[in-house]
Specification:
The protein has about 210 residues and is mostly helical. The protein is built from five helices and no strands.
């Protein structure tokens, strides 16, 4: 008769410990996302420095007519479409994971990674067809520096997507509907990279 209260007391302690553990995990995930957002803000300031420096120099010291080239729009426009579509496919992957559809999630992630690789291939084609080199003038050096730096981000993002794609496999994957932070982190990073490209496209191709 004296064992029942003990069992109930143990069950209550286990339930309390489980609740505390769940709360700690939730707080930890929030802190990780905040840390990533802070990193992206700092990273965005680097791009902002490139953009502001270029626009300021161009306004204060106008470049000579032969120092600014009229870039062809088809390839960069295609790149813009590729990245915007990839943001949509990445979002679909996240929605599929939340519905515990790991197969659908992997398919959308694979498509997203493919779009990222297509962007990089298209950018390499553009580099080989540009009418200027890296050291021709300020415009050329800035163009290669900014687009190359952004291309590095796309490369890292594509690698992250492929890692999440592999970890989202079922069974045996670590990325699940319960543990979806890796996918959310990669998705936030990818949306950031896409947003930077839109600004870059406007400044260097349209202005």
């Amino acid at each position: 008769m004296t064992s029942l209260p003990t069992i109930d007391h143990d069950s209550e302690e286990q339930a309390d410990l489980a609740d505390e553990h769940a709360e700690l995990e939730e707080e930890h995930a929030d802190h990780r996302m905040f840390g990533l957002a802070t990193f992206l803000v700092a990273d965005g300031m680097t791009f902002a420095g490139f953009f502001v420096a270029y626009l300021t120099f161009r306004a204060v010291n106008p470049l000579l007519p032969d120092a600014v080239y009229e870039l062809e729009l088809p390839l960069p426009t295609l790149n813009t479409v590729l990245l915007l579509v990839s943001s949509a496919t990445f979002h679909r992957a996240g929605q599929a994971l939340k519905r515990n559809q790991s197969g659908q999630c992997q398919r959308w992630l694979f498509i997203t990674a493919g779009l990222g690789l297509a962007f990089l291939a298209s950018q390499m084609v553009e580099y080989f067809t540009l009418p200027f080199g890296l050291t021709d003038n300020l415009y050329a050096s800035t163009f290669y520096a900014v687009t190359g730096f952004h291309g590095l981000h796309v490369t890292l993002g594509t690698i992250m997507i492929l890692i999440v794609w592999w970890q989202a496999r079922s069974p045996g994957g670590r990325v699940t509907s319960e543990n979806h932070f890796p996918l959310e982190a990669a998705e936030l990073y990818w949306h950031f990279v896409d947003g930077i490209w839109v600004i870059l496209f406007i400044i260097f191709y349209l202005l």
